[in-house]
Amino acid sequence: QVQLVESGGGLVQAGGSLTLSCAASGSALSIDAMGWYRQTPYKQRELVATITSGGSTNYGDSMKGRFTISRDNAKKTVNLQMNGLKPEDTAVYYCNVIASLHFGVWNAYWGQGTQVTVSS
Q: Between the CA of residue 73 and those of 2, 4, 93, what are the distances in Å?
């Protein structure tokens, strides 16, 4: 079993900042890529940011220049620093991890999601 514990969501005013964190745990857990996605009731789930095991990053167009993704391989944690937040950033943010247990098949695992609300 892979567990993803997310934290850092909340309410913030426009222009403010928040940092999300996601820690993965499991038996003999090996992790490849890690990332964040977000979803609203009126919009399909979209890419926020991803980071490979080697540290290569990828961002959604509207996040570039404002968000920064990072990871700590020893702690099996991925973070998302969000600056210059806008009301349109309001969404449920989901942590995503590509991992395997006991050298098994690689699967995608999702967190329960954390709410980020940006007020005007």
A: 16, 14, 21
DSSP letters for 5-72 = EEE--EEEETT--EEEEEEEE-TTEEEEEEEEEEEETTEEEEEEEEE-TT--EEE-GGGTTTEEEEEE
Would you call 70 exposed, middle or buried from its count of C-beta atoms within 10 A (0-12, 13-18, 19+)? middle
Could you give the C-alpha distances from 21 to 17, 57, 71, 107, in angstroms and in order?
13, 16, 9, 20
Q: Which of 36, 51, 46 is nearest to 88 (CA)?
A: 46
Report whether 4 contacts 94 (CB < 8 A): no
Per-residue pLDDT of the chain in tens (120 residues, 90 and over written 9): 899 999 999 999 999 999 999 999 999 999 999 999 999 999 999 999 999 999 999 999 999 999 999 999 999 999 999 999 999 999 999 999 999 999 999 999 999 999 999 999
